[in-house]
Amino acid sequence: MNQSNVESRPSSVLIISAILVGLFVAWGALAPESLDRAAGEGLGWMINNFGWFYMLVTAFFVLFVIILAISPFGRIRLGKPDERPEYSWYSWIGMLFAAGIGVGFVFWGVAEPVLYYLDPPMGFTAETPQAAVAGLRYAVYHWALHPWAIFSIVGLTLAYVQFKKDRPALISSAFYPLIGDRVNGWFGQGIDILAVIATCTGVATTFGLSALQITGGLSYISPIPNNVWTQITIITIVTFLFMFSAAKGVDKGIKTLSNINLAVAGLLLIFVIIVGPTLFIAESFVTTLGGYITNVASMSLTMTPFTESAWLGTNTIFFWAWHIAWAPFMGIFIARISRGRTIREFMIGVLLVPTVLAVIWFTTFGGTALNIEIAGTAPIGDLVMNNVELALFATLGELPLSAITSFLAVLLILIFFITSADSASYVLGTMTSRGSLNPGLIVKMIWGLLIAGTASVLLLSGDGGLGALQTASIIAALPFAIIMVFMILAVLMMLGKDFKIEDRKRKSKRRESITKEIREEIYEELKEELVEDMKKEIKEDVYEQVKEEIYNEITTDKKNK
C-alpha cells in the first residue's frame, strides 16, 4: 500500500523540471530577443571553447560502438538469456526513425546538400562540382554514423541496466555501477532533471520546425496561408492525434504509425529515384558513399585552428551538439523497443541500417535538388537560404505528379510529427515517473501539452523564441556529453563483469557437456566389455552344460545296447 502511494505521487524530477521548463518558456514568450541573445552568446562560447571536445568525443563514440559490436561482448543479450526481440526488424527500424530523427531526414534531406553547395566547408569553392560532391558528403556525415553512435551509447547503456540489471528506465540508472545507491539521491535526480530539460526543449523545437514545414508545404500546394496561426492550428490537430496514439500505447500506437510511415517514406523515395535524375542519383550515391567511407576519419578529426573559418562551428559542431541534446530522448526510446536483442544485433540495427538509409535518402533528395539547382530550372538555392521549410516541396514541384508527392510529403511529416510527440511524451513520462516502462496516460498528456504549448508560445513570440529554445537545448548537450563518457565507463564495467560470469557459465556448460560425452563413451565401452565378459562366461557355462548333456546321452545309449 505504501509502495503504491509512493508510485502514484508526482516525482520531484517531474515537479522541478516542469517548473524550470515553464520559466524558460515564459522567458522566451515575454522577452524572446533577450533569450535569443543570451542563448546565442552561450552557444558561441561553447563552440569556441569546446568545439575540439565535441569533435573528439563523437569520433570516440563511433570507434567505441564499432569495436563493441565486433568484440566478444556482441554476443551478450539485452535481457535475460532466453529472451528474444519483442518487435520484428521492420517495426523496430520503423520506430527508430519515427521516434524523431526521421523528421530531420525529411527537413534537411534537400536543404543541407544545397546549403553546403552554396556555402561549402573550408577548402572548397562555392557553386562548383567539387562543392556539390562535398555538400552531399557532409550532409551524410552529419546524419550517418556519428548521430546514431551517440544514440546507441545511451540506448545500449539504458537497455542494459533496465533489462539485465532490473534498474528503472532513467538516465541516472547508468551511474549505478559507478556510485551505487547514491544514484537514488540528489546527484541522480540532477542528472535526470538535466536530461528532461534537454529532451523537452529539443522536442519542442522539433514541434515548431515540423509545424513550419507542414504549413510551408500546405501553402505551397494549396491556398492555405503560411502564418503562425496555421502553424498553431497544425500543432493543435497533431496534439489531439498524438493523444489518441498515446492512449493506444507503444505496441499499437507508435508501432502502427511507424510501419505506415516507413511505407510512405519508401514510396516517396522510390518515386523520386525513378522519375528524378536516376543516373545522376546513382552516380551521386556511389560517389558519396565512397567519399564518406574514405574521408570519415579525416572529417571526424579535422579542426581549423589556423583560420578564422566559422563553418565547422556553425555546421558540424552544431549538429554534434544537437544530436547529443537528443540522446536522452532517443536513448530511452531505443532502449524500450530493443529488449531481447544481442548487442551485435542492436548495433547493426541502430548504427549501420540508418547510415545506409542516410546515404540513400540524402543522395536521392539532395542529389535531385542539386541537379535542379545546377541546371538553373528552379531557385532551390534561394529557398534554402530564405525559406528552408519549402525546399523539399520546391524540389518535388519540379517532378511529375507533384501534387500527389507533395501531399505524401505532408502526410510523411505529419505522421513523423505525431510519432515524435507520442514517443517524446512516453520518454518524458518515463523519466518523470521514476523510470516506469508504462508511465500513466495523464503524465504523458501533461508533457505532450507542455511541449505543444512551448512550441506554440515561442512561434507566437516571433523571431528569436524558437531559435533560442533550440540553441538552449544544444547548450545543455555539453554536460550531457560528459555524462555519456561516464556511461561508457559504466557499461564497460558491467559488460566486463557479466562477460566473465557468462564465460564461466559457458565453460562450466562445456565442461558438463564434455564430461557427459566422456561418461557416455566410457559407459558404452564398459558395457561392451561387460557384455563380452558375460558372453564369455555364459559361453563357458553353456559349453560345460552341453558337454555334460552329450556325455550323459552317450552313456545312456551304451547302457541300452
UniProtKB/TrEMBL annotation:
Molecular function per GO: transmembrane transporter activity
Record localization: Cell membrane
InterPro entries (alphabetical): BCCT_transptr
Pfam family, one: BCCT
Protein's membrane topology: Multi-pass membrane protein
Main location group: membrane
Transmembrane segments: 12-30, 50-70, 90-111, 145-163, 193-216, 228-247, 259-282, 317-335, 347-370, 390-420, 441-460, 472-496
Keyword terms, alphabetized: Cell membrane, Membrane, Transmembrane, Transmembrane helix, Transport
GO cellular component: plasma membrane
Keyword Cell inner membrane in annotation: no
Family label: Belongs to the BCCT transporter (TC 2.A.15) family.
Protein name as it appears in the record: BCCT family transporter
